[in-house]
Amino acid sequence: MKENLNIDWSKLPFDYMRTDYNVRCYFENGKWGDIEVSDSENINMHIAATSLHYGQEIFEGLKAFRGVDGKIRIFRLHENAMRMRESATGLCMEPIPVELFEEMVLKVVKLNERFVPPYGTGASLYIRPLEIGMSASVGVRKASEYLFMVLVTPVGPYFKTGFGLTNICILREFDRVAPKGTGRWKTGGNYAAGLAAGELAHSKGYSAVLFLDPREKKYLDECGPANFFAIKDGVYITPQSESILPSITNKSFMQLAEDMGIKVEQRHIPVEELEEVQEAAACGTAAVASPIGEIDDIDTGHKYVIAKDGKPGPITTRLYNSLRAIQYGEQPDVHNWCTIVE
Ligand SMILES: Cc1ncc(COP(=O)(O)O)c(C=O)c1O
Fold first, then answer.
1. Residue 280 and residue 230 in contact, taking contact as beta carbons nearer than 8 Å
2. Nearest C-alpha to atom 1 of ligand 1 is from which residue?
3. Is 3.90.25.10 the CATH number for 166-327?
4. Residue 159's pLDDT is what?
5. Which residue lies with its CA nearest to atom 15 of ligand 1?
6. Which atom of ligand 1 is least distant from the CA of 176?
7. Is ligand 1 within 6 A of the CB of residue 188?
């Protein structure tokens, strides 16, 4: 018998909380084994595992929502499975079969159903699949054994301001990834490489860093753990770059914008073009869309005031509301983005 949950759902932070179960699957002797259900928060691994020494680690982040009809919806399960395969290939790891990924995510959500926050609280169940190289190696080489696991934890909004304006900054002394490096894959090393810049930004009162392209420092790249988009004269513009993660939220917004008759341009965006945009936002699974008030280029001292009237812009608000409505089952899911957990 599990203890009763005593969670104040509407005050949840974006942080880890213990749930009932996680699921695991090992790749050994050239094949994936059976799915294991565990109630332990620990794993047993070799001290010379490639994930510990040479960064063979990839992950994903997606969410499950309790809808207006009481049903649980997982947003863009298939897209996340596909992206994790891309990351695996990029890091010379074993790609997880899409069906295995989907089966394990559905299973772990079902097993932890009581942790899916109630409808109307603004909270959701964050799903974190991860894969790590397990074989022992002191030489730099790929592992022959891997562990794929999925854990879940209920979360509140990523940015404390929720759907309120947030200020971000450009720090030219830092790059997060290399031009043709690992930025397009979701691997832990990219996040470690962005920590120092993130800490500095936070210490100056900003919620995130807007990284520039690492080759020329001329174009916008992405916002720490989120993509970037802006609205310029009614057009949705978002960076085209070889060093950013292809955000599934951004892809969804591009589709919704097109559905609303809004033109979409995915292209290089010079920093100076920020002068000409009327709206801007960071977008990703965690933040959904976090509207940006001001972007400060710390090293040049230039301040780009985006939200001149001090509130989120109309197009960002429309896109945000539309995406949320699909996730909560309030609006028809015409693109089949949600998987209902039976
Ligand atoms: C570096 C980075 N960029 C962008 C995103 C947004 O991607 P998505 O919308 O798929 O969550 C994330 C978060 O997953 C991220 O970590």
1. yes
2. 225
3. no
4. 61
5. 225
6. 1
7. no
Residue 148 identity: F
Of the candidates 338, 277, 334, 281, the one whose C-alpha atom is nearest the C-alpha of residue 308 is 277
Quick: pLDDT tens for 68-92.
999 999 999 999 999 999 999 999 9
Predicted model pTM: 0.97
User: How far is Cα 135 from Cα 218, in angstroms, rounded to an integer?
Assistant: 41
Residue 27 CA: distances (Å) to CA of 3, 32, 142, 266: 34, 4, 13, 38
Q: Write the DSSP string, 168-228.
A: EEE-TT--SS-TTSGGGS-BHHHHHHHHHHHHHHHHTT-SEEEEEPTTTS-BEEEETTBEE
Backbone angles phi, psi at 37, to 5 degrees: -105, 130
CB 279 within 8 A of CB 319: no
| Tens-digit pLDDT profile for residues 33-53 | 999 999 999 999 999 999 999
- On whether the CB atoms of residues 168 and 305 are closer than 8 A, the answer is no
The residues near 166 (Cβ < 8 Å, ≥ 6 apart) are 159, 207, 208, 282, 290, 291, 292, 293
Q: Considering only CA atoms, which of 129, 125, 68, 72 is closest in space to residue 95?
A: 129
Hey, where are the domains in the chain? Answer: 9-155, 166-327
Q: Are 28 and 40 in contact (CB under 8 A)?
A: no
Task: Give the pLDDT confidence of 141-193 residue by residue, as tens digits.
Answer: 999 999 999 999 999 877 666 689 999 999 999 999 999 999 999 999 999 99
The reply to whether 186 belongs to the active site is yes
Q: Whose CA is nearest to atom 2 of ligand 1?
A: 225
Task: Determine the CATH number of domain 9-155.
Answer: 3.30.470.10
